[in-house]
Design goal:
single chain, about 120 residues, mainly alpha, 3 helices, membrane
Length: about 120
């Protein structure tokens, strides 16, 4: 006879008030995919330029060579800084690792090949 006092489990609950909506999840921190992509793209451009400098013998015939070399130094700096920023990534770590490698490679190539050949080409 006590079962008659219990609510039927198949009937909708009319007397139950609706629950409050839970707060939205916090914005994820450490999402540096943009910095990683910038480091990869600029690193590839810088590496391709220095491969061109090393393999091409007609480099002295290019117009605006000084501006191109200065632009490559700027891109190498941007790639290096974005690569270092990628170390702080908490999300998309594979992309961040690729950005770091590209940034460091662009920075090292800019120092080793770009600085000395750039000074030679600018004179």
């Amino acid at each position: 006879m006590a079962d008659d006092d219990l609510p039927d489990s198949l009937e909708p609950a009319i007397d139950v008030p609706p629950r409050d909506e839970p707060p939205p999840p916090p914005t994820p921190k450490g999402d540096l995919r943009v910095a990683s992509v910038v480091a990869i793209v600029t690193g590839v451009v810088v590496i391709a330029w220095y491969l061109f400098v090393v393999t091409a013998s007609t480099i002295s015939e290019l117009d605006n060579l000084a501006w191109i070399q200065i632009g490559m130094w700027v891109l190498a700096g941007v790639s290096f800084v974005c690569g270092i920023l990628s170390l702080n990534a908490r999300m998309a770590r594979e992309l961040a690792a690729a950005g770091f490698i590209a940034g460091v490679a662009a920075g090292l190539l800019s120092i080793s090949i770009g600085f000395f050949s750039g000074l030679e080409l600018l004179n």
